[in-house]
Amino acid sequence: MSRAEGRLDEAGLIARFFRPLAAAPGAALLSDDAATIPTGDGPDLVVTTDALVAGVHFFPDDPADAVARKALRVNLSDLAAKGARPAGYLVTLALPEDWETDWLDGFAEGLAADQEEFVVSLLGGDTVRTPGPLMISVTALGFAQEGRTPRRGGGAPGQRLYVTGTIGDAALGLRLRQDERLALKWDLRRDEREHLLDRYLIPEPRLALAGVVAAYAAASMDLSDGLVGDLEKLAEASRCGAILEADRVPLSRAAARAIRADPSSLTDALTGGDDYELLLAIHPDDVDAFEQEARAAGVPVVDVGALVEGAGVEVESNGRPLALETRSFSHF
Amino acid sequence: MSRAEGRLDEAGLIARFFRPLAAAPGAALLSDDAATIPTGDGPDLVVTTDALVAGVHFFPDDPADAVARKALRVNLSDLAAKGARPAGYLVTLALPEDWETDWLDGFAEGLAADQEEFVVSLLGGDTVRTPGPLMISVTALGFAQEGRTPRRGGGAPGQRLYVTGTIGDAALGLRLRQDERLALKWDLRRDEREHLLDRYLIPEPRLALAGVVAAYAAASMDLSDGLVGDLEKLAEASRCGAILEADRVPLSRAAARAIRADPSSLTDALTGGDDYELLLAIHPDDVDAFEQEARAAGVPVVDVGALVEGAGVEVESNGRPLALETRSFSHF
């Protein structure tokens, strides 16, 4: 077999090699943020795993505590998206030969800080040597009310689309990280620049909203590969289309300033990865109660569009279609 | 911090950096084969993870299906040791740039074959690129009767020690793999040579015994780092000593022939890794029922010694202490 034939992207690779192995209903054909397993009379178990490779998913010189927190938080974000409360996590660490005590001290401190913040505890793991780069694989376990896990495919035309927090900060933070001159071009104040860099470095898993997600979301996912591309996945799984009103997408002050100064960076904000905010489809009858309970949980949510009949995602601005150069981000 | 200070072994590294994070009782301070999580009214969840790195844990030219099966089976073996029935597994694959379709076809075929053999299904995973070697991390989930998971530390003086299957085949298989001239030195027939090589390549998780383990084992672990060293861990966790009667340790015909031809290879058999058999401590009152039910489950078990007052493991042969050059094997 030629190597050229092997050039599948991650989704193609999963579809071809791994989907046929995922026979359990709770595996959702590997097309969701997490799998669910019934436990008999108890709650459903929710399980997810995500790996980070140095030089691919984070910069080798990122602070060790931030790397640890990101590795844990991207998994906790998946639990939040499925309305689950965390039960624990496992860490597998592949360490290169030149690992340093200092680095592992920082890594453990990052985990300890987040264990306290999210009331979660380490359950196990594995430590192996590798001649390659450092790699961290985290598996997070959670519990959800039996049968109440919102799937990506639970949406239907007419439902409103909500996102948590602000969108695009991490993608703009990544661009700043790659080219620090952009801070000048985007006219950013120092605290705004740091806000974007921090949001790339350490995402905010929306576990505080998990109960509300379980109660109200018809469909739900976390945003890891960019709002537009991830909305396409949710709409496709729900067998409908979507309209995204770009002007309603919540932006931080820093992101808003960057986009004003450089309108092309709107594409980064809407299609870049690493938001780790939630995207939720809410039935119109539930929007008032949902908004009220989200407010009570202290998590900002904004209505950014709707699911519609048809297929595909239309991004609108001022009532007109907005052309985007790219749609989605891939870490693979 | 100097690199020299960083040269902890895997156990030291876990103790220093990760044990302080493992506050949940079910994490067993990271000193067991698997963690347990209560699920409320349901069974206990049992979870374990093990990673394999190409060039470290397997040979880069091992058949892809065998690599897949080993990655899954070493985790299923941990479930068996904790008396759990498997509920599913996740696979994280770090793929180097030059991955081949053929390799992944074989890998998926290996998983499919074992899914059928052990009635288990893929729940999820992650696929990432790495500039380093191929790495596979598997997390296996299982269920066990509430509160009935035998720990490494449940042993007490007077209990008998049992192992399943035969010991040392994989360690001798690894030596054959490293130096094929040993087949001649050990006077092995072709099928015996293949038996040892196969046992290194594809372990046999003793899931058929899981129910018997849950019912009878006071202490239990799977053998991954060599019988003597692993028995030291079980005895230490149980705060007692152990006597291992080397002459009673069950050997395959191939291993027995190798040891007859080259008595020094007994050390490899008793201290080499990758057996993935079970080591169980059974109360004397239970040995008859245990042996009978193990036989009914079709899993050979042999009494190889006893837990005793004191500390440490004494290996005896013909009633005299046996000196071993090494005690344990480390993949790290």
Topology:
The structure is a homodimer of 332-residue chains.
Chain A: H1 10-18, E1 35-37, E2 44-53, H2 64-81, E3 85-95, H3 101-118, E4 122-129, E5 135-144, E6 160-164, H4 169-178, H5 182-185, H6 190-201, H7 210-216, E7 217-222, H8 227-237, E8 241-245, H9 253-261, H10 265-271, E9 278-282, H11 287-296, E10 301-308, E11 312-317, E12 320-321
Helix pairs in contact in A: 2-3, 4-6, 4-10
Structural notes for this entry:
2 copies of one chain form a homodimer. Chain A is α+β, with helices and mostly antiparallel strands and 332 residues long. Chain A folds into 2 domains: 32-144, PurM-like, N-terminal domain (60s Ribosomal Protein L30, Chain: A); 152-321, Alpha-Beta Complex (Phosphoribosyl-aminoimidazole Synthetase, Chain A, domain 2), CATH 3.90.650. The first copy, chain A, contains 11 helices and 12 strands. In chain A, the strands form 2 sheets. Chain A has a 7-stranded mixed β-sheet. A 5-stranded mixed β-sheet of chain A has the order 1-2-5-3-4. In chain A, strand 11 (312-317) and strand 12 form a beta hairpin. Chain A starts with 9 loop residues before the first helix and ends in an 11-residue tail after the last strand. The model of chain A is unreliable at 1-6 (pLDDT under 50). Chains A and B meet through helix 1, strand 2, strand 3, helix 3 and strand 4 of A and helix 1, strand 2, strand 3, helix 3 and strand 4 of B.
